[in-house]
Amino acid sequence: MNDTAAPTTVNEAEYSRWQRFKRSHLYHSFVNDRVAMVSLLIFLLYAVAALLAPLIAPYDPYDPAMIDIMDSEIPPSWQEEADERFLLGTDAQGRDMLSTMLYGTRISLLIGVCAVILQCLLGVLVGLTAGYFGGRVDSFLMRLADIQLSFSTLMVAIVVLAVFQAAFGAELYAELAIFMLILVIGIAEWPQYARTVRASVLAEKHKEYVDAARVMGFTSRRIMWGHILPNTLSPLLVISTVQVANAIISEASLSFLGLGMPVSQPSLGSLISSGFEYIFSGSWWITVIPGFVLVILVLVMNLLGDWLRDVLNPKLYKG
């Protein structure tokens, strides 16, 4: 009797949660916003294509056995002198552009997502601590954030990465490039999270549920992370969506300056950079096609961020 009742109860609970979600403002807003739906669909296509790049890419751009320098600068299939083996043509090294962009998108998304996770962790830690404890701790941490904000992300990244290359050599940098980019971009952007979380904590920490948690003897750590933080997640989701796009742009900018991913492991930014010198010689596709792919990726992420900002803003909710 109990064995048959348990699955039914679980199914009813899952069905109830789904029904509540379908009646929510978030779901209603999404299904009635075509821009948000198309943006999410395009982003999911990017993510799936990047994740499955080793399976769907015609060639492996990291395998020297599949690269022939004699195939360099072959135009896309719709132009004259094209080769049916290469739908989007090849780059200056003879690599298939479609395959290289699939792998490059995976690297760009990986750097963007991991850098934002690092930003979020640092910012949430600083913001929670500053907002909850206040006083001198708040003043000290916020002055650090002010100092960090006085330096642009690109300026900090250029200095750190250039010094690292000069000190340890280009070979070591090529091996650690992806980790260095995640670290530098992540550390450079944490103040935005810290300020947002601090403002939310200042609004939440004097509410009744926080006072009740203190009376019950909960530790400050439990109150901060278990009670206050969940109520600050809405603005963090909005910031994260936009920050992933910003991190991808920062990586592309650094790659264009020669401080991003190496040519042997190209991201979308390094593909644009490597093909720029050939754009006036007629091989425009090496730069233009990855640039178009990058612009669409950043655009849909910004559109999703704008939609989330509007949906999660209670002042705009009309019931």
TrEMBL record:
Residues 105-305 form the ABC transmembrane type-1 domain. GO terms for cellular component: plasma membrane. PROSITE patterns: ABC_TM1 (PS50928). The chain crosses the membrane at residues 35-57, 107-135, 147-166, 172-190, 228-249, 284-305. Pfam families: BPD_transp_1 (PF00528), OppC_N (PF12911). Keywords: Cell membrane, Membrane, Transmembrane, Transmembrane helix, Transport. It is a multi-pass membrane protein. PANTHER family: ABC TRANSPORTER PERMEASE PROTEIN, OLIGOPEPTIDE TRANSPORT SYSTEM PERMEASE PROTEIN APPC. This is ABC transporter permease. It comes from Sedimenticola thiotaurini. The lineage of its organism: Bacteria, Pseudomonadati, Pseudomonadota, Gammaproteobacteria, Chromatiales.
